[in-house]
Amino acid sequence: MPPQAKTATAPSTMKELKDTLWKAADKLRGSMDASQYKDVILGLVFLKYVSDAFDERREQIQAELADEGLSEEQIGQLIDDVDEYTGRGVFWVPEHARWPYLAQNAKGLPAADGQPAKSIGQLIDEAMDLLMGANPSLAATLPRLYNRDNVDQRRLGELMDLFNSARFTGDGAKKARDLLGEVYEYFLEKFARAEGKRGGEFYTPAGVVRVLVEVLEPDHGRVYDPCCGSGGMFVQTEKFLESHNKEGSDISVYGQELNERTWRMAKMNLAIHGLNANLASRWGDTFARDQHPEMQADFIMANPPFNIKDWSRSESDPRWKFGVPPAGNANYAWIQHILSKLAPGGSAGVVMANGSMSSNSSGEGQIRAEIVEADLVSCMVALPTQLFRSTGIPVCTWFFAKDKTAGDGGAHDRTGQVLFIDARNLGYMVDRAERALSDDDIAKIANTYHAWRGTGGRVSEERAHRDHEPAETYDDVPGFCKSATLAEIKAADYALTPGRYVGAAEIEDDGEPIEDKIERLKKELYEQFDESERLATVVREQLGRVS
Predict the structure, then answer these.
(1) Which three-class secondary structure state does DSSP give residue 77?
(2) Which domain holds residue 63?
(3) Model confidence at 170, in pLDDT bands (50, 70, 90)?
(4) Higher local confidence (pLDDT), 287 or 31
(5) Strand residues in 194-302 grouped as ranges (E)
(6) How far is CA 363 from CA 260, 304, 332, 333, in A?
(7) Burial of 377 (0-12, 13-18, 19+ CB in 10 A)
(8) How many CB atoms lie within 10 A of CB 79?
(9) What is the rounded CA–CA span in Å between residue 543 and residue 547?
(10) In three state form, how does the secondary structure of 165-217 look?
């Protein structure tokens, strides 16, 4: 009997789904460069999302109208009211941009009624045009490159089929937005790895982003990122809100991005996650033209490009309150721009190269001293190496606070103090090239900060109240954390490297008296010397026999 053919099964877990889609998408690569290939795939994910969200809203409207007792004819007349979609944050999707129409023609549209045949790539390009035409907020955002010669139309059609048939079973309550949002983020991470150094321009590892989010807890007001990449800071904020039963509408999102392709990715990514972000009408240089000049943010999170040597510098810029940054390095330009955007009571978290904590070249040391003396630095965290696959540069996070007084929230008054955390020993190796932070690692950093502030963190307080447990208290831990005064920092020439303050971890006392330990170790060492001499004699005898 011939072997029985294997039956194709739909992915049954999220990991299987993401891996299946990635392998299928990878087949499409062909002659495209990585950046163009990325645009093709992520655009397709976005198209699937907006169509699914549209269909879901259409079904809701139909059910609502039926409940009102309207006839099918009346429903047919009202169901295409654009405001019923856009008013609920759903994009209006014209008929020929809807996924079912495209999936039905995944092998192309044959010639008919005097109209020429169209490839699936041409149909997708036209769908992108229709979407952008019907939704002004998407203008100049979506990719139109599906009908190019280097896009394999057969494989593109097969990928359409896979997106159409893939089902995630076992969690019927999970919305299309959540599912496709996870797929989009997974693809961003995979593309960042594939592109190496270039990938770092649009992607910050999720663990690093979560350190910023969990420390700052951005749950209200204006959230800003001056170099927002593909929008990861905002997406992680939305996840933070969701995990604590808060709405994305509790925050207003503002961002700016220099790279056109990355700006497009961010617009799509945030739309998939239901975030109506103000990313301005186009991409642009934050230093040359701040697109949110009057905005003051409650929370700022950023991962600026490290050590930029060529940047738009003006010595008379009012943002340089603490000193003019050097022309050869933009690190302190980013820091001062961020400080200039903080509202009273606002806080910020910034990923920086480790050199920023101690550099004294070109006036950077003096700028740092001025910022420290202004009492704006709340916490410094030295992170483990190899968190960024795109760069080997060791990184840290700076946390700023406009107000470190106790306020009315029960916090400790930390005026004139800075918390130093040395987290270099945290994390685990994903593979030989990349390290990641675990949930426990991130919680350890965040909980240490919140205990130092005396609030336990809004999230920790909620949990403690629910479980009838006391909030965590703060103590210096040698080798890990230290609360230092401005006087101590000044004595260290304003260096902000945590290792200079936290000291060495205490060595656990094994209970053996030091004299006995020395005697025991001497005895063991002499025994090893004797064994070494014995083995050397044996080896000489063996060599003598050979000769």
Answers:
(1) helix
(2) 14-169
(3) very low
(4) 287
(5) 221-225, 251-255, 297-302
(6) 33, 20, 10, 12
(7) buried
(8) 16
(9) 6
(10) HCCCCCCCCCCHHHHHHHHHHHHHHHHHHHHHHHHHHCCCCHHHHHHHHHHHC
| CA atoms within a 13 Å half-sphere pointing along the CA-CB vector of 1 | 3
Quote the CA–CA distance of 487 and 489 in Å, as a whole number. Answer: 5
CATH assignment of the domain containing 354: 3.40.50.150
Decide if pLDDT at 199 tops 50.
no
Q: Are residues 373 and 477 in the same domain?
A: yes
Q: Which helix (H) or strand (E) holds 341?
A: none
Q: Which residue has the tokens 């806080």?
A: 347
| DSSP label of 520 | H
Which tokens sit at 173? 């309550």
What CA–CA distance (Å, rounded) separates 224 from 250? 14
Tokens of 86: 């856009």
pTM > 0.90: yes or no? no
Neighbours of 317 (CB within 10 A): 17
Which pair of tokens denotes residue 11? 């992915």
| Six-digit token string for 305 | 């490009």
3-state SS assignment for residue 254: strand
Which positions ≥6 away from 415 have C-beta within 8 Å? 375, 404, 405
- Cite the DSSP H helix spans in 308-399: 331-340, 364-373
Nearest Cα neighbor of 226 from 281, 275, 293 is 293
CA 66 – CA 76 distance, rounded (Å)? 11
Rounded to the nearest 5 degrees, what angle is found at the Cα of 227, between the Cα atoms of 389 and 214? 70
CA-to-CA dists, residue 257 to 265, 284, 335, 373, 417, angstroms:
10, 6, 16, 31, 34
Number of domains in the chain: 2
DSSP string, 480-542: TEEEEEHHHHHHTTT---THHHH-PPPPPP-S--HHHHHHHHHHHHHHHHHHHHHHHHHHHHH
DSSP state of 391: -
| Helices marked H in 419-497 | 439-453, 458-467, 486-491
The whole-number pLDDT of residue 415 equals 95
Question: Two tokens at 331?
Answer: 């690190």
Asked if residue 162 is part of any domain, the answer here is yes
Q: Residue 504 is which amino acid? A: A
In the beta sheet, which residues pair with residue 43? none
Same domain, 89 and 230: no
> How are the residues of the chain apportioned to helix, strand and coil, as percentages rounded to the nearest 5?
45, 10, 40
Residue 409 in domain: yes
Model confidence at 191: pLDDT above 50: yes
What the block records as the tokens of 131 is: 């979407």
Structure-token match 């976005």, residue found = 46
Is the pLDDT confidence value at 501 over 60? yes
